[in-house]
TrEMBL record:
InterPro entries, sorted: ArgE/DapE_CS (IPR001261), Bact_exopeptidase_dim_dom (IPR036264), Peptidase_M20 (IPR002933), Peptidase_M20_dimer (IPR011650), Peptidase_M20A (IPR050072)
PANTHER family (alphabetical): ACETYLORNITHINE DEACETYLASE, ARGE_DAPE-RELATED DEACYLASE
Keyword Metal-binding listed: yes
Peptidase M20 dimerisation domain residues: 214-331
Cofactor: Zn(2+)
Endpoints of the signal sequence: 1-20
Protein name as catalogued: M20/M25/M40 family metallo-hydrolase
Keywords tagged on the record: Hydrolase, Metal-binding, Signal, Zinc
Coiled coil: none
Any matching Pfam family: Peptidase_M20
Length: 439
């Protein structure tokens, strides 16, 4: 397997980047034809979007997730992709849609989407509604709208015989909103695919004038403290000490004072229980505690999250947290554990080079220049699993909208057409027969 470094990627993309730094040129004849084809297919793309939005695919509705995945089988087979379904029964999830088209022109691409939503089957927010240029419904932006952009960008190219020699892998996961555990099983296929390509593109919802070139990673941490159970009259004495709750307070305060100012690093203690008798369910993030004001607390538990911009930042923060936990108050004990979740999509030279190409496409379409995002304002996503293994990655290529994960989720309908045209031209430029090659 060839390893593509960021430095090599910049050399590979240099001709495209140099062109991107020039004033945007008019679309070439094939590119103008691509945009026209996107327009011709626009109504059909909206009809398919309405169809899949009306299929409930909350993460744990396995049947619904599979039904949405099945809706993409025939369209991708018509584009010449080999399609299969990756079962995820081992992690209690529906599975992943997987499609591959072999070729040798330009860069090898991985295109990423997801089929599931956060909305349960028995909820109230279950169907597509349209009012002029605005649509509402579960997943219209997060991210069934992005899945449609992905498909119809490829369809526009295929309609014009411009996809014949492209090397493209598509994965639409079935559990992005609630990832199956362990991660090494639920994201095995995505990581494996990333290791075989050069560039990864994700189609989560976009923002005006912005794409995602970096995302922070996320992981979990749990602190458990212990103390001597005794009458409160003896607290702070040599035999009784400070108790579990004071020890927990010390740890949280020192973590805050030590790490809170570090750029892009955040750590949130989301749940705390403490007292004489403590029960905590890690999977449900739910607990209960019993105690009395005249009894020194015997146990406390905090469950939290950590977000970081790089693996180096994550590991440095974890080491500092361990040091803080180990410095106990009198007659107390404490331990901290960590659980990996999403890696970081770190800023890179390769991502910046890819941004320049995407921005050139956007300007050529009259959509304006594109800027990279502020990673502190974006959550984790599946692109983060691919990013460490490719030369360049980008997210936020889907349509615009808002209020994701709420019953007010909405989609700007014209942005579906704009995002599809932009994605189609970006894929075209990256997979041309005469495009720079990865060697």
């Amino acid at each position: 397997m060839k390893t593509i470094t960021a430095a090599v990627l910049c050399l590979i993309l240099f001709p495209l980047v140099a062109a991107a730094q020039e004033p945007p040129a008019a679309l070439s004849e094939p590119e103008a034809a691509i945009v026209a084809r996107v327009e011709e297919n626009f109504d059909a793309s909206l009809a398919m979007l309405e169809e899949i939005v009306n299929i409930n695919s909350g993460t744990m509705n396995h049947e619904g997730v599979r039904e949405v995945g099945h809706a993409f089988v025939e369209p991708f087979e018509a584009l010449g992709f080999d399609v299969d379904w990756i079962d995820q029964d081992d992690v209690n999830r529906a599975g992943h849609f997987h499609a591959v088209k072999k070729g040798d022109a330009g860069a090898r691409l991985l295109l990423i989407g997801h089929l599931d939503t956060v909305f349960a089957k028995d909820g109230d927010f279950l169907e597509w509604r349209r009012d002029g240029d605005v649509a509402t419904g579960p997943g219209v932006v997060d991210m069934k709208g992005g899945d449609i952009v992905l498909l119809y960008a490829l369809k526009a190219l295929d309609d014009l015989d411009l996809l014949n020699d492209a090397a493209i892998t598509v994965i639409m996961t079935g559990d992005e909103e609630m990832t199956g555990k362990p991660i090494d099983i639920s994201r095995k296929a995505l990581i494996k695919a990333a290791k075989r390509v050069d560039i990864a593109l994700n189609f989560e919802g976009g923002g005006e004038g912005e794409v995602v070139t970096s995302r922070r990673g996320s992981s979990g941490w749990t602190v458990t403290t212990t103390g001597v159970r005794a009458h409160s009259s003896g607290i702070f004495s040599e035999d009784v000490g400070a108790g579990a709750i004071f020890e927990m307070a010390r740890i949280l305060d020192e973590i805050y004072e030590t790490l809170a100012a570090e750029e892009y690093l955040t750590f949130n203690p989301g749940v705390i229980v403490g007292g004489t008798d403590v029960q905590y369910d890690m999977d449900a993030t739910r607990g209960s505690a019993f105690g009395k004001t005249n009894v020194v607390a015997q146990k406390a538990v905090v469950d939290g999250g950590l977000r970081f911009i790089s693996e180096e930042q994550k590991e440095a923060a974890r080491e500092k947290m361990r040091e803080i936990v180990e410095a106990h108050r009198p007659q107390t004990g404490a331990e901290i554990t960590f659980e990996d979740s999403y890696p970081a999509m770190s800023p890179s030279e390769g991502n910046e080079a890819l941004l320049a190409v995407a921005s050139s496409v956007s300007e050529a379409l009259g959509q304006g220049a594109l800027a990279g995002n502020d990673p502190s304002k974006r959550g984790a996503a599946d692109i983060s699993f691919a990013a460490p293994h490719v030369g360049a990655s980008m997210d936020g290529l889907g349509p615009e909208g808002g209020r994701g994960h709420t019953p007010e989720e909405w989609l700007d309908i014209p942005s579906v057409r704009d995002a599809t045209a932009r994605a189609a031209l970006l894929i075209y430029r990256l997979t041309r027969e005469d495009a720079p090659r990865f060697e």
